Amino acid sequence: MVMELRDRVSILTATVARLTRVRFDQRARPLGLTRPQWQTLTCIFFYEGSTVSQIADMIEVEAITAGRLIDGLEALNLIERRLNPSDRRLRHIHLTPSAEPLMSQLRTLSTETESELYDGLSEGDLAKLETLLGQVRLNLSRSLGRDRRVMEDTGRQTEQAPVGARKKSGSLNERL
User: What are 16-33's pLDDT values in tens digits?
Assistant: First the structure.
């Protein structure tokens, strides 16, 4: 039986996603961070001042899971919760100064991993890949009936940033 193009692309997409996670995890392990922790930190870096609920949307987890991740990062003194002056029920999440060296190390890991990942691809190839994957992600979000926000490391937004959050421009590597 011959595998159809859509089947091959689906398998390839899943495999690339898994291998990317595995490789970055290998690089991040010496820093003592889990994938969900570094994803959350990066999200907070780009959207500083977001709420737990907004962060949950961006990293595609339930609010309770994001809350636990934030609790752990707070215990490590990497983030802090600040009260919203106009609504004391809301707390906004910010990086602490002690997170800066770690974010710098994540930048290095990101650069090294991206160099491996995109070796042999031109900027035009990457731009086309971004467009195509963005459309696939949008299709999936729509089919799931979710209005999820996406944290994009390109600094460009296809969806609105969380209300009250300050979106930082530039890629993670440019920002750090």
Answer: 999 998 998 888 889 888
Distance between alpha carbon 107 and the CA centroid of its chain, in Å? 13
DSSP structure string for 51-78: -HHHHHHHHTS-HHHHHHHHHHHHHTTS
Range of the domain at 106: 32-175
Q: Which residues pair with 81 in a beta bridge?
A: 93
- Tell me the torsion sign for CA atoms 113, 116, 117, 121: positive
Share of the chain above pLDDT 90, in %: 60
The CATH code of the domain that includes 65 is 1.10.10.10
Q: What angle do CA 102, 58, 166 make, to 5 degrees?
A: 70
Integer angstrom CA distances of residue 1 from 10, 14, 43, 65, 108: 17, 21, 43, 42, 44
Q: How far is CA 171 from CA 43, 52, 126, 175, in A?
A: 12, 23, 14, 6
Q: How many domains does the chain have?
A: 1
Could you report the per-residue pLDDT of 97-123, keeping only the tens digit for each? 999 999 999 989 989 999 999 999 999
* 5 domain-assigned: no
